[in-house]
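Supplementary Methods S3. Input chains for the assembly prediction are listed below.
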Amino acid sequence: MSTRVLRGARRRRLRRPLAAGPQKRMNKVMVDRMMWRTGFGPSNADRKKWIGRSVQDFVDELLTTPQGGLRGAAPYKQERDDDPRTPLDPTEDDTDLVLEWCDKMIRLKNPFAERMAFFWHNHFATQRSEVSPPQLMQQQIDLFRKYSDLVANPAAKFRDLLYEVGEGPAMLRFLNGEQSTKDEPNENYGREICELFAIGILDRLGRTTYGENDIKEISRAFTGWEIEDDDPDNVKAIFNEDRWDDTKKSIFGKKAAFRHRDGVDAVLAHWSHPYFIVTKLWNEFITLPPDKATVTDLIRTYKKGGTQIRPVIRKILTDPAMFANVEPDMIKPPIVYSVGAMRALGRGITSSQLSNALDEQGQEPYFPPTVAGWEGGLSWLNTNTALARFDFANALVNDDAYEIKDPGSSESHTAAFTNAWNAVGRPWLAPKTRSALLFFSKNAPADNEDDRIARQRVLRTFMVGGPDGQVM
Amino acid sequence: MDRKDLHTDHDAEHVVDPGFAEAVICADCARSDSAALDVEPVDHMPIPIEAINGFEDGVPRVKRHDRRSFITNGALGMAAVYGASKIDWTEAFEAAKAEAAEPGSVLVCLYLNGGFDGMQNFVPIANPDFGHYSTARPNVGRALGASAANQVGTTVMPGTGGQFGFANVGVSGVGNNEQTVGFDTIWGNGSGAGADMALWPAVNFFQNSSRSHFDSRDYWFRGTTDDETETGWLGRWLDLYGSKANPLQAISLSSNLSKQIRTKRAPVSAVRNLNGVEFSVSNSGETDATEVMGSVSSVKAAKKNEQLNHAREAYNRTVRVARSLKTLENAPAGAGYPQSSLSTRLQLAATLIGAGLGTRIVTIDWGSFDNHANILNSMDPQLTTLSHALAAFRADLVARGVETKVITLIFTEFGRRVEQNDNGTDHGTAGPMMLMGSRVNGGLAGDWPGIAPGQRARRGDDLRAANDPRQIYAQVISEWLGGDANAVLPGRPAATARPIIG
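Predicted structure tokens for the full assembly:
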């Protein structure tokens, strides 16, 4: 009987909710979560700094601290030991294009802006395979960076972002804006701005938000754009008045001879736009859906700020729903998992390995599967991608360039566990996962050097690449 | 042994054997299988995880087999799709479901690669042929009975009037690793319903047959000696009578599509293998990482934590798939499959047929029977494997409850010369054809032309063709797959009277 009572008490203690509210002090689990959701995971120094301090403080600093410079060695590719080290050439080789961006994520001290730029890349998913020259893609990601660096650009507005995306050569090329003229308006971008970029098919009450005629009218307003791409390093979008449809259009009840920006304004005036964009942002950071009051509050904040992004993000990041689950409750996207693992192990880019690994895991930057971006969520993990994630951890942990030293014959199985855990940056492991790994550690042979190193390899690979390493 | 390994061995053999030079020229040796290498897949389609153990109710649960569910669940393997243009997965699985609901007859085609020497397995043991045989093959010929350490002995084939004997290396119990399965157990009493195998001992095209591997294979796969024909004989059947949406209706178990099922329009596919799934940690000694993952991924999370539960379940499912595939690879002892790439493919065929994916045709290429030299050493182990694997395949199909729906056609591009060249045999004309299945009208189905020098083809060199492959193909269509054989095999010779089914 006493055992049962103890077990119950223990279970309650384990499941005790995390301290909610922006003023509450954070423990390790909370610090780790904030660092993963807004970046690529914590370092021990980050934990030391933030444990015991409030979520509010953390978010304040996140939104006011510049990115800092790139740390560590510059990236290169060397596929075999006797090959020369070649610097990345992003406009010549798409692999390098991918690696160049990943390198920033790996080496920036405060990568929040890169994480946000990736969010916008997923939101305005543009495919390199459809857009040439590659400089156009770089230009577009730089645009996303501008609206993601909320320190340099604290009043960044979604409205301006949407203006610039629609007038950017990458999007004009990707969704056929450059072919859209008054005689033959192309509806591709007009359709996606409604469905994917600004309004969404259904509003918060499940009602249809727009019709085919709206797409036609919006598309006419967006006519007239061309791309001047003689010099790939200086590609420009140009508005050609002659190709623009100068007649009146009717967009969501407003009638005028709209041009692109007026058209965007009319789209943003749609009743469902604020709901669409604040929930999209919410879902990036928090798994639990927002309750009604929260949605209303976020919409109010968004409108009051005149489509400013920062106040909405501040509200989301300080919402107690972030900690609704004691255990991590969001699957890391491959980019977050992979870059995070490299940061935790102190690895840089020295080959094309990361780009291949991201492809196998189902998320190669610049190559979203469709204009809707990556599906994300549960779809990230299946038998193929689970294996790909584990293999990547194995490749990192057991990279020949990084020797694992013999911990010595006196090392106990618990010490072996701790040694491995420290070596991979002390990631979150559920108590039962610890037990399972300790069980392995206890039963693994440890009589000689090779055995002990093998034990380290297994423990470290599982801590990084096992199921618990996939959530944040 | 995979294809590459086979070839390395084969080439080495050519180089070391001086007797080969004056024999037949193997200019096309690089082409060791039935692959149509000039066609590219138009798409890839996942084979659902559930196929591994068969679907519930025997039919794919189509709703779950859209693109999204594959992204979530992952796939057991990928089928390279040929023939049709872009494939709609949902439509493909709808078609598979419709076909699986009323399973059609299935044909497995096993092509014995390189020119199988029929007289080394189905030995003419009655005089006067046996006398001619012994004279023609003093070094490599089989002996009568369980003689000569069983290596070259023969066992009388029931139902053939004592005319033929199995080489002992392919029968049960004798010289055969004490296995109790072999050609003789499949053959049974060699008569109609009492036999699960029919034999045509001397088959090739009546006109225009070729001693070139390349040309002859093409003729057999196309079902015509006309070089202008691009489709396979089964491809033409599929275009006429097959599904317009289901690429899994015809599967080559290979990296490439077999020319036999090359179509104009109907979608068909190639499946190399099911995923080699296992967790492994480099340089970690004896550790079975998949086992460790089994315990780590079984940890339960709070019910409302859907994503953590899903992450662990994805890993756990991978562990389960890895274990299932391991079972498949390492042939469970009770199933009796020998260790061989043939077994792996036959098991995969049984798995796919049993999964209810609407599969009607499976093609397998196997073996290395171009034994110009050293025929006893290189052919005999393959005969043992072949006989064991076929018997195990039959048992496997029975266990899956689908055996009565399946027949297996076994053939080669040509037979060998009657006379040996030192210790091997060179390219000849007629070779054996076999048809296995409990529905098959078993026993000796074809004529035997005899091997007295005057009875031979090609100036006394070769076993003459007593049957044309199109006669058997036509019966496979009219009696088994269904359809008009004339539409598939124009210009074929007249059919024989003996039914192949019944």
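The longest strand of chain A covers residues 225-228. Chain A has a mean pLDDT of 93.
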